[in-house]
Design a protein that fits this description.
Elements lengths: L24 E2 L32 E7 L6 E7 L4 H4 L7 H6 L3 E5 L8 E8 L6 H15 L12 E6 L39 H8 L7 E6 L6 E5 L8 E6 L6 H11 L30 H7 L20 E4 L2 E7 L15 H14 L19 E2 L6 E7 L2 E2 L8 E2 L13 E9 L7 H4 L3 E8 L3
Parallel strand pairs: 5-6, 5-7, 7-9
Antiparallel strand pairs: 1-8, 2-3, 4-6, 8-9, 10-11, 12-15, 13-14, 13-16, 16-17
Helix pairs in contact: 3-5
């Protein structure tokens, strides 16, 4: 029997450029299928803040996966945590409360203003298990950042941890539906009666994320070996684009977080479809990976992913116009047959990688440095910079390049040839990302940055 949605599903637009962005989630129960949502309205709904309406009246749209490597299904879940889970068994002790909310820099490649800041928050970890949380965090980030284009752009990311101390270890709904655990973020499986759908109290997540510096993306790691996760696209007062939840110790749970960032960072549409959606007849979609145009029309009109057509894509096959996407089997084309925006465990397509890189650079710059520019430096001061592996860097003194310093990430004024001549000087570093994964000229213009430091007269 097909599982019907408990209420009318509405697709809510997120506060992002260019179209519909759905919340993402996964479930591994093959028997838990659902009817597709009705086709989206052509009118864009206003984005809903986490605090915009009483909790009892709010809902979250989610997409979930019936098993690893499956296509998603949709449902709608209440934003409010069920009463049986929301009850707190006891308050934290004084020592536990003192550790609750501690923030640590796990990976810091530069100032928050230069980088895309990913914040991990643990749930279901007691005060004695925070070390386990930090180990799980590093493992999960290693898995996520092994996927391209993350792998080529690790230097653009800072990673932070926020310790959320739970009274009990584990997650509600694990192993059985009736299991209730007293945890900081109220993570629970069996969300809306879908076993692998791992929901959280988004208001509590917001309160912990606000403790971290300038969160751009938030991942909640729930202390469990059970397959499951979820992803929310919501309007955060803190400023991050979305929340992804994942079980800490399941090898496939990182994929839902990667898929979710395709929405929140890449502004990409889902590329799967429902047979009973019929034919799309609306306006040209705003997302970069969905179009009404054929490959020939894209080429002749120089629109969408025409620059990539005919090239071999990392997710398999060649880039073209494959019918079906954005939930419609007809009237919409996608770039490739089966990217990660269609099936978990896949790669981003070539157009998808370009969109992800564009999203990275919305938050980060190609050149970063912890060496401040506000104070004149001495000749022996060290200037350190960071830049992606695909970038080149040059150094100049008073406008003239020092060719011997090309490619260096660390220099001193003295090593650049500045002598104690009694004169003030300037040093400029210029980085350019030469990636072959970007073809859009407008984006290419954003892939160059420079920074200048003054050197005191001596």
């Amino acid at each position: 029997m097909r599982r019907r949605l408990p209420r009318r599903f509405s697709i809510r637009t997120a506060a992002v450029a260019g179209g519909f962005v759905l919340t993402a989630a996964l479930a591994a129960t093959a028997s838990a299928t659902t009817d597709p949502p009705p086709p989206p309205s052509s009118a864009a709904a206003a984005p809903v803040s986490a605090a915009a309406a009483p909790a009892a009246e709010r809902t979250h749209e989610v997409e979930y996966f019936t098993r690893p490597g499956s296509h998603p299904r949709h449902t709608e879940v209440p934003a409010a945590t069920p009463d049986r889970i929301a009850r707190a068994d006891r308050a934290l002790s004084a020592s536990e409360a003192a550790a609750d909310g501690d923030v640590s820099a796990v990976i810091q490649t530069g100032p928050v203003g230069d980088k895309l800041d990913v914040v991990f928050i643990g749930d279901g970890y007691t005060s004695a298990q925070q070390g386990d949380f930090h180990a799980d965090l590093r493992s999960k980030w290693d898995q996520m950042s092994a996927v391209e284009p993350y792998a080529s752009y690790k230097e653009l990311f800072n990673v932070w941890s926020v310790d959320a101390v739970s009274n009990q270890s584990g997650v509600s709904g694990d192993p059985g539906k009736d299991v209730v655990k007293d945890t900081a973020l109220k993570s629970y499986f069996w969300c809306d009666d879908i076993e692998r759908l791992l929901c959280v109290d988004t208001a509590k997540v917001e309160s912990y994320a606000a403790k971290a510096p300038d969160a751009d993306l938030v991942v909640v790691l729930s202390n469990s070996t059970k397959y499951g996760g979820a992803g929310y696209t919501l309007t955060s007062q803190v400023g991050y684009d979305g929340i992804a939840t994942a079980s800490s110790d399941h090898a496939d749970s990182d994929q839902v977080a990667v898929h979710e960032t395709g929405h929140s960072l890449g502004k990409l549409a889902d590329e799967y479809y429902y047979d009973d959606y019929g034919t799309y007849t609306g306006a040209e979609p705003g997302e970069s990976n969905a179009t009404k145009l054929t490959a020939a029309q894209m080429t002749s009109q120089q629109k969408k992913w025409y620059r990539w057509i005919g090239q071999t894509s990392p997710d398999g096959g060649t880039v073209g116009a494959y019918e079906g996407g954005r939930y419609y089997p007809k009237g919409i084309n996608r770039p490739t047959d089966n990217s990660i925006m269609r099936t978990l465990g896949r790669e981003f397509s070539l157009p998808g990688r370009e969109a992800m890189i564009a999203g990275f650079y919305q938050h980060a710059g190609v050149l970063g440095s912890n060496t401040g520019t506000g104070t004149a430096l001495k000749r022996d001061a060290t200037i350190k910079v960071t830049f992606p592996a695909s970038a080149s860097i040059t150094w100049s003194v008073d406008g003239t390049e020092v060719t011997a310093a090309r490619g260096k990430s660390s220099v001193t004024p003295a090593s650049l040839g500045i002598t104690a001549d009694g004169q003030a000087h300037t040093i400029t570093a210029k980085a350019t990302d030469n990636t072959k994964a970007v073809k859009d000229p407008a984006l290419q213009k954003k892939l160059t940055a420079s920074r200048t430091w003054k050197v005191a007269a001596s």
